[in-house]
Write a structure and sequence with these properties.
The chain contains four helices and no strands. The protein is mainly alpha-helical. It has one domain.
Protein backbone atom coordinates (compact mmCIF):
# COMPACT_ATOMS: atom_id res chain seq x y z
CA UNK A 1 0.00 0.00 0.00
CA UNK A 2 1.28 3.46 -0.82
CA UNK A 3 2.15 5.58 2.15
CA UNK A 4 1.29 9.24 2.23
CA UNK A 5 3.60 12.18 2.20
CA UNK A 6 3.92 14.39 5.27
CA UNK A 7 0.92 16.70 5.62
CA UNK A 8 -0.85 14.95 2.70
CA UNK A 9 -4.55 14.22 3.15
CA UNK A 10 -6.09 10.94 2.03
CA UNK A 11 -7.79 12.77 -0.84
CA UNK A 12 -4.52 14.41 -1.92
CA UNK A 13 -2.78 11.03 -1.79
CA UNK A 14 -5.52 9.45 -3.92
CA UNK A 15 -5.31 12.31 -6.42
CA UNK A 16 -1.51 11.97 -6.63
CA UNK A 17 -1.67 8.19 -6.98
CA UNK A 18 -4.27 8.41 -9.73
CA UNK A 19 -2.19 10.99 -11.59
CA UNK A 20 0.85 8.72 -11.37
CA UNK A 21 -1.11 5.74 -12.69
CA UNK A 22 -2.41 7.78 -15.62
CA UNK A 23 1.14 8.88 -16.51
CA UNK A 24 2.29 5.25 -16.47
CA UNK A 25 -0.66 4.14 -18.58
CA UNK A 26 0.24 6.71 -21.25
CA UNK A 27 3.51 4.84 -21.79
CA UNK A 28 1.78 1.47 -22.01
CA UNK A 29 -0.94 2.80 -24.27
CA UNK A 30 1.63 4.05 -26.77
CA UNK A 31 3.16 0.59 -27.02
CA UNK A 32 -0.23 -1.00 -27.51
CA UNK A 33 -1.22 1.51 -30.18
CA UNK A 34 1.96 1.01 -32.20
CA UNK A 35 1.75 -2.78 -32.15
CA UNK A 36 -2.00 -2.85 -32.68
CA UNK A 37 -1.83 -0.42 -35.59
CA UNK A 38 0.92 -2.40 -37.27
CA UNK A 39 -1.01 -5.66 -36.91
CA UNK A 40 -4.20 -4.17 -38.26
CA UNK A 41 -2.41 -3.29 -41.50
CA UNK A 42 -0.99 -6.78 -42.08
CA UNK A 43 -4.04 -8.24 -43.84
CA UNK A 44 -3.81 -5.39 -46.36
CA UNK A 45 -0.29 -6.38 -47.44
CA UNK A 46 0.23 -8.40 -50.62
CA UNK A 47 2.16 -11.11 -48.76
CA UNK A 48 -0.74 -11.76 -46.37
CA UNK A 49 -2.22 -14.37 -48.72
CA UNK A 50 1.00 -16.39 -48.31
CA UNK A 51 0.62 -16.80 -44.53
CA UNK A 52 0.13 -20.36 -43.36
CA UNK A 53 -2.52 -21.36 -40.83
CA UNK A 54 -0.18 -20.95 -37.85
CA UNK A 55 0.80 -17.43 -38.92
CA UNK A 56 -2.81 -16.44 -39.51
CA UNK A 57 -3.70 -17.83 -36.09
CA UNK A 58 -0.85 -15.87 -34.50
CA UNK A 59 -2.02 -12.69 -36.21
CA UNK A 60 -5.60 -13.11 -35.00
CA UNK A 61 -4.44 -14.03 -31.48
CA UNK A 62 -2.10 -11.06 -31.39
CA UNK A 63 -4.79 -8.61 -32.49
CA UNK A 64 -7.16 -9.97 -29.84
CA UNK A 65 -4.52 -9.87 -27.10
CA UNK A 66 -3.59 -6.28 -27.96
CA UNK A 67 -7.25 -5.25 -28.15
CA UNK A 68 -7.64 -6.70 -24.64
CA UNK A 69 -4.56 -4.79 -23.49
CA UNK A 70 -6.10 -1.60 -24.89
CA UNK A 71 -9.33 -2.26 -23.02
CA UNK A 72 -7.54 -2.72 -19.70
CA UNK A 73 -5.17 0.21 -20.17
CA UNK A 74 -7.94 2.63 -21.15
CA UNK A 75 -10.44 1.36 -18.55
CA UNK A 76 -9.13 3.53 -15.66
CA UNK A 77 -10.12 6.64 -17.62
CA UNK A 78 -13.65 5.28 -18.02
CA UNK A 79 -13.79 4.42 -14.31
CA UNK A 80 -12.68 7.93 -13.43
CA UNK A 81 -15.27 9.52 -15.73
CA UNK A 82 -18.08 7.27 -14.47
CA UNK A 83 -17.24 7.84 -10.79
CA UNK A 84 -16.17 11.49 -11.02
CA UNK A 85 -17.16 13.54 -7.95
CA UNK A 86 -18.65 10.51 -6.19
CA UNK A 87 -16.06 10.57 -3.38
CA UNK A 88 -14.69 7.22 -4.58
CA UNK A 89 -11.15 8.20 -5.58
CA UNK A 90 -9.53 5.48 -3.43
CA UNK A 91 -11.67 2.84 -5.13
CA UNK A 92 -10.86 4.30 -8.55
CA UNK A 93 -7.13 4.24 -7.74
CA UNK A 94 -7.32 0.61 -6.54
CA UNK A 95 -9.26 -0.45 -9.63
CA UNK A 96 -6.92 1.53 -11.92
CA UNK A 97 -3.93 -0.24 -10.39
CA UNK A 98 -5.44 -3.67 -11.02
CA UNK A 99 -6.56 -2.75 -14.53
CA UNK A 100 -3.09 -1.39 -15.32
CA UNK A 101 -1.49 -4.62 -14.13
CA UNK A 102 -3.79 -6.67 -16.35
CA UNK A 103 -3.14 -4.27 -19.24
CA UNK A 104 0.61 -4.79 -18.84
CA UNK A 105 0.12 -8.56 -18.75
CA UNK A 106 -1.76 -8.47 -22.06
CA UNK A 107 0.70 -5.97 -23.53
CA UNK A 108 3.53 -8.36 -22.64
CA UNK A 109 1.66 -11.23 -24.28
CA UNK A 110 1.11 -9.04 -27.33
CA UNK A 111 4.80 -8.16 -27.55
CA UNK A 112 5.78 -11.84 -27.30
CA UNK A 113 3.18 -12.89 -29.88
CA UNK A 114 4.27 -10.08 -32.22
CA UNK A 115 7.91 -11.17 -31.96
CA UNK A 116 6.89 -14.77 -32.63
CA UNK A 117 4.90 -13.76 -35.70
CA UNK A 118 7.45 -11.34 -37.20
CA UNK A 119 10.47 -13.58 -36.66
CA UNK A 120 8.51 -16.59 -37.93
CA UNK A 121 7.67 -14.63 -41.10
CA UNK A 122 11.20 -13.36 -41.68
CA UNK A 123 13.53 -16.09 -40.42
CA UNK A 124 11.55 -19.20 -39.52
CA UNK A 125 9.37 -20.86 -36.92
CA UNK A 126 12.16 -22.15 -34.67
CA UNK A 127 13.88 -18.75 -34.58
CA UNK A 128 10.50 -17.17 -33.87
CA UNK A 129 9.88 -19.49 -30.92
CA UNK A 130 13.37 -18.89 -29.50
CA UNK A 131 13.09 -15.11 -29.94
CA UNK A 132 9.62 -14.99 -28.40
CA UNK A 133 10.76 -17.08 -25.43
CA UNK A 134 13.76 -14.81 -24.91
CA UNK A 135 11.66 -11.65 -25.03
CA UNK A 136 9.07 -13.27 -22.76
CA UNK A 137 11.76 -14.05 -20.20
CA UNK A 138 13.19 -10.54 -20.46
CA UNK A 139 9.75 -9.01 -19.84
CA UNK A 140 9.10 -11.39 -16.95
CA UNK A 141 12.39 -10.39 -15.31
CA UNK A 142 12.07 -6.63 -15.92
CA UNK A 143 8.33 -6.26 -15.32
CA UNK A 144 7.71 -8.88 -12.63
CA UNK A 145 10.72 -10.54 -11.00
CA UNK A 146 12.88 -7.47 -10.32
CA UNK A 147 10.04 -5.30 -8.96
CA UNK A 148 8.82 -8.16 -6.73
CA UNK A 149 12.37 -8.82 -5.58
CA UNK A 150 12.78 -5.13 -4.74
CA UNK A 151 9.44 -5.05 -2.91
CA UNK A 152 10.45 -8.14 -0.93
CA UNK A 153 13.72 -6.47 0.08
CA UNK A 154 11.67 -3.65 1.62
CA UNK A 155 12.88 -0.18 2.36
Amino acid sequence: MTTGRPDETEQERADRNFGEILQELRVGQTGVQILFGFLLTMPMQARFSQLDDVQRGLLVADVLVLATASAFIIAPVAWHRALFRRQLKDEVVTAANRLAQLGLLFLGLGVVTSILLVVDLTVGRRAGAVSAAGIGMLLAVLWVALPLWRRHRGG
